[in-house]
Amino acid sequence: MPARKSNPLKIGQKLNEGKTKQIFELVDQPGLVLVQSKDQITAGNAVSKDQMEGKAAVANKTTSCVFQLLQESGIKTAFVKQHSDTAFIAARCEMIPVEWVCRRVATGSFLKRNPGVKEGYRFSPLKMEMFFKDDANNDPQWSEEQLLEAKLCLAGLTIGQCEVDIMSRSTLAIFEMVEKAWATQNCSLVDMKIEFGVSVKSREIVLADVIDNDSWRLWPAGDRSQQTDKQVYRELKEVTPEAMQMVKRSFEWVSERVKLLLEPQASSRVVLLMGSTSDVAHCEKIRKACASYGIPCVLRVTSAHKGPDETLRIKAEYEGDGIPTVFVAVAGRSNGLGPVMSGNTAYPVISCPPLTPDWGPQDVWSSLRMPSGLGCSTVLSPEACAQFAAQILGLRDHLVWCKLRASMLNTWVSLKLADKKLQACSL
């Protein structure tokens, strides 16, 4: 990747500095900050600390790619854009001083705190823990009750049960999305830590800070001996130039592959077959909903009643190129398209009939009552039809799957916030 050219920024005062990054205000862009990474690697709350040339660049590249993946999927983050090789621009937040840790496999500190659990124990569902950020006390583990009793207030938002629930549910979804993405590279995401902040502009909770090679454990092919994360540095018996080069190679390996997480693993599509052009408006609703999942749609007109040979010819056209495809049959009155397609292809077929108020209750039976041996499903809502197609195609395309997972989370969060607002009005 060529060096990224950065536009001049009016950088103001330093707002904060951590072990591996600095935060600066942007004078001409209120509400935004510059997050500048440092060539420093630490472990054990900076008990171990060394310079590693090039770390800022690989950390920034990793964070930018991961946040781009999550943001494009629909997760609310503070990330705005990568500014340079070593810095990115983010929304200014007041950080919630808690690290949320999600674990798929038992290892590391979890084993020390839970004697008797063997390394490699797999958590299904995921195991989640939280740690209060307090270097002086080695970031003690907190319970949900401790977080609630702290009554934190950041950017005007008090952290209560609703906010804790949102962060907890978001942590699980974010882990699953990053896990799914790394699986495309045959890498197991063992555990990951993230942090949230409250946007000073919107006063909503967003994923903030960074997600880089210091934030997780990655085991290529699920093999601990091949680990490529900061654990390589933690386990050094002696810090030598040769040892630091080995650590750097691991970080570079991750930063090179992380950009592949943004690429689809397989092209896919939905082919919309409509009985006549009078069904175009219904098909356009399906196409618009598919676009929200990043799935291209092809619209064709064919009648299984009036031209079955042409219908089967069109079917064969899309079966012949090997692209994963879902056929959607859009036909009112007597739906012949869905059953004929389902009986003549091994590809999934969904019927989404455009029912009318007058004959709808009668017409729908031609989509629901199938002869034996046909697996054609029927979904009445255009948006739900697109979602079902996305769930099928998402089994092979992690980017589609991530958009589905983020949509589930956002629906849950919107209901949670609506309930909180209603309770406040009632009080």
TrEMBL record:
Keywords: ATP-binding, Decarboxylase, Ligase, Lyase, Multifunctional enzyme, Nucleotide-binding, Purine biosynthesis. GO terms for molecular function: ATP binding; carboxy-lyase activity; phosphoribosylaminoimidazolesuccinocarboxamide synthase activity. GO terms for biological process: 'de novo' IMP biosynthetic process. It holds the Pfam family AIRC. The keyword Ligase applies. Pathway: Purine metabolism; IMP biosynthesis via de novo pathway; 5-amino-1-(5-phospho-D-ribosyl)imidazole-4-carboxamide from 5-amino-1-(5-phospho-D-ribosyl)imidazole-4-carboxylate: step 1/2; Purine metabolism; IMP biosynthesis via de novo pathway; 5-amino-1-(5-phospho-D-ribosyl)imidazole-4-carboxylate from 5-amino-1-(5-phospho-D-ribosyl)imidazole (carboxylase route): step 1/1. Residues 268-415 form the PurE domain. GO terms for cellular component: cytosol. In the C-terminal section; belongs to the AIR carboxylase family. Class II subfamily. In the N-terminal section; belongs to the SAICAR synthetase family. Homooctamer. PANTHER family: BIFUNCTIONAL PHOSPHORIBOSYLAMINOIMIDAZOLE CARBOXYLASE_PHOSPHORIBOSYLAMINOIMIDAZOLE SUCCINOCARBOXAMIDE SYNTHETASE, MULTIFUNCTIONAL PROTEIN ADE2. This is PurE domain-containing protein.
